[in-house]
Specification:
By secondary structure, the chain is mostly helical. Helices cover 62% and strands 7% of the residues. The protein has 14 helices and three strands. The protein has helices at residues 37-56, 66-73, 85-97, 107-119, 124-134, 141-151, 165-180, 203-218, 221-247, 250-275, 286-307, 312-320, 322-333, 340-360; strands at 2-7, 13-21, 24-34. α1 (37-56) packs across α2 (66-73) and α3 (85-97) packs across α4. The chain is extended, with a radius of gyration of 31 Å. The N and C termini lie far apart (86 Å). The model has no long low-confidence stretch (mean pLDDT 78).
């Protein structure tokens, strides 16, 4: 026997106990119908109890208040729950050993990673999903990777701050181990990772294959043509926008563009929320929302710049300079290394934009 929900033509849902008899499914008993979810859960509980009694006999203990409990817990969502057991147990152990005294840029991330690693070992991505789902702690993946880089920082490295996180963690671990062993440590095994990579390919062959692959995507015609093609496509889009603005004023054009983006947003929302049933994580996706606001502001400025026909020849190269700006932002925010050639090109681009402005004046 099993309990099923049957959709009725009137819009209500019936709760029935069904059993397979002589190769056919037959309704054994119906327990009523309703549109209210709490009522349906209560009817399902009664149906399961009746089905169990038919197969295994009556229960010794019957909870009359179960329906009330079901009605209360049915309205509690996952984002209102938080798993506190691991933090109460491992968190106290974390502080007792002395890791709470280790100074990092974000002590909460450090403690959350350690506690989650002990209770629910997994990859960094699985750890992030676990903390978001069970602990209501939302962290960006890039932030976690940058934080792990900090744990490997040592004195003498070019980094802000004069503290040595890795040394402090090692010292606390060593002191606790020495205390547990009675003050004597003979040998220490240091496990740096939980996974290893095994290659069955000859080192020379692998090196040659990697060099060929790097040449293909860094120095070949393909590596040159793809960025050039993108710039040409971007220029064609700018030219098309200038043609559109000949028949529309900037306000109407902005309205048309934003309505197009709104339509794309509605389609995306329907797919993500109603089809895939994914849950929005506002804290984790905050950088995306901020980026969307800046994109909207940039779109407004872009339209008004292109609409000025007297100065469009100056606005176009300035707009196209976003590639140089992206390189500069990557150096400032992502700390990517740039060669003297990169800096030289940035200086030339900025100088060209300044000259355009001077000549326009």
């Amino acid at each position: 026997m099993f309990v099923r929900r049957k959709q009725n033509k009137s819009g209500t849902i019936s709760i029935q106990v069904v059993a397979k008899v002589s190769g056919k499914y037959r309704v054994q008993k119906s327990f009523g119908s309703s549109r209210d979810e709490a009522t349906l859960i209560s009817l399902e509980r009664k149906a399961r109890q009746w089905a169990d009694e038919q197969e295994f006999g009556e229960e010794l203990f019957i909870q009359d208040d179960a329906a009330a409990y079901d009605a209360v817990f049915a309205g509690i969502g996952q984002n209102q729950l938080r798993l506190v057991g691991p933090d109460l147990i491992y968190g106290r152990l974390f502080d007792k050993i002395g890791f709470g005294a280790v100074r990092t840029s974000d002590d909460e991330i450090f403690k959350s990673l350690v506690v989650t690693r002990l209770y629910h070992p997994g990859s960094k991505l699985k750890t992030l999903r676990y903390m978001a789902y069970f602990m209501n702690k939302y962290y960006d993946e890039d932030k976690i990777y940058r934080y792990l880089d900090e744990l490997c920082w040592r004195h003498g490295s070019k980094r802000k701050g004069n503290y040595d996180v890795k040394h402090d963690i090692e010292q606390v671990t060593y002191n606790q181990t020495k205390k547990v062993l009675g003050g004597s440590v003979a040998i220490v095994f240091y496990d740096t990772t939980t996974m290893y990579f095994e290659s069955r390919e000859d080192d020379e062959l692998r090196r040659a294959r990697q060099e060929a692959s790097n040449y293909r995507y860094a120095k070949s015609w393909l590596a040159i043509c793809l960025p050039v093609a993108y710039c040409l496509l971007d220029a064609a889009g700018t030219f098309a926008d200038s043609l559109v603005l000949r028949s529309l004023d900037p306000d109407s054009a902005n309205c048309a563009y934003e309505l197009t983006f709104l339509f794309a947003a509605v389609v995306s929302f329907v797919y993500v929320k109603l089809i895939r049933h994914d849950r929005f994580q506002t804290k984790r996706e905050a950088p995306k929302y901020i980026g969307a606001l800046f994109e909207t502001a940039g779109q407004f400025a872009y339209i008004y710049a292109i609409a000025d026909e007297d100065h469009v020849m100056y606005a176009a190269p300035i707009i196209a300079a976003y590639c140089a700006a992206s390189v500069l932002w990557s150096r400032i925010f992502l700390r990517e290394k740039l060669s003297w050639r990169h800096y030289l090109m940035l200086v030339l681009i900025v100088a060209g934009i300044v000259l355009l402005g001077i000549l326009d004046i």
